[in-house]
């Protein structure tokens, strides 16, 4: 008789070790993101707040190409394209060569990401029905998960979260971000230029042709990527979409002429290894610095912001919506596939992970600017809601996960055992690890 499928069961050792390396980089990036956001908040609310705004609003770039953008816009449109390029590479690799190429493993993070986006959006709408005009434009703000922020919190609370849960959190956040890009492209594109959109396909096709031929020369690929970004920006579609589409053209496995899948990492992993430090260490922290600086205006201003239905909807969406959506979707997968949680884990672990999913920041701030505009009162109130909701989700997740940390420590010790000294922990070589 076939044993039931396991949710959050251990995957392969190859995938676990690769994910561990990725998470180490993202954890460092999360610390830098926290630092950038904190500096921006302190500076914006100090007596030198005007200097911060002047720096953020400084325009650079060629006006003849309509690229005389503010530094804040360059961070949101330009640097985040790098972030989404890496996210696209990660997602493609997971579904082509990673453990998620198996449909039974892929269904859980996809369902959880969808649930974790739909429920927060619904709660935001409920809190803003009948509100002031234009408030509902921000329905997608609480739908995103910031993996760098979540991992930074894990590093601070020093929890021994099992590899399977960390992998799920990373994959959930990547799928979440890619779905958010689809939402941005469809719902936040106001004016579409078909001509420029068609033009963007030409350098993108050339880029795809070169990478399919395993060309790695940056002096060929980078100009094509920049041209794709410029034309996408001019088309009216948010320019970060270019990063995702370019990533999807990159091959994951080696060609047969180069030895096939067993000959080592493919071009996608090569690019990811090279570009992820730039994304985590520069692009996202700089974006956080230029986006998180909101002048609260003292306790009275903070109270006014937190009392706005927009901020309330965002906070409830991030904290309650994410927890309900991710946990509920996981329960539905278990219910309708008759899968069972891994024997070492329980539903409190799922709830703790779902609360971590409520740490929205990078993409939430991006959607806020698209929804309300950078100079509006709603924009400032929404940013306060994002920060407050993210902090609340982090504190609740820390409490739940710390209460379970003794169990996690035991699992971590088991995963580190290597009885036969072959470099692979024995727990990954048991048949049950593949179930």
Automatic annotation (TrEMBL):
Membrane topology of the entry: Multi-pass membrane protein
Subcellular location field: Cell inner membrane; Cell membrane
Entry keyword set: Antiport, Cell membrane, Ion transport, Membrane, Sodium, Sodium transport, Transmembrane, Transmembrane helix, Transport
Spans through the membrane: 27-45, 65-86, 106-127, 139-157, 169-188, 194-211, 278-304, 310-334, 346-372, 384-403
Domain of life of the source: Bacteria
Catalytic activity: Na(+)(in) + 2 H(+)(out) = Na(+)(out) + 2 H(+)(in)
GO molecular function: sodium:proton antiporter activity
Keyword Transmembrane helix: yes
InterPro entries: Na/H_antiporter_dom_sf (IPR023171), NhaA (IPR004670)
Record bears the keyword Protein transport: no
Cited Gene3D superfamilies: Na+/H+ antiporter like domain
Main location as per UniProt: membrane
GO cellular component: plasma membrane
BP-aspect Gene Ontology terms: regulation of pH
Function: Na(+)/H(+) antiporter that extrudes sodium in exchange for external protons.
Family statement: Belongs to the NhaA Na(+)/H(+) (TC 2.A.33) antiporter family.
Designated name of the protein: Na(+)/H(+) antiporter NhaA
Species of the source: Geodermatophilus sabuli
The gene coding this protein: nhaA
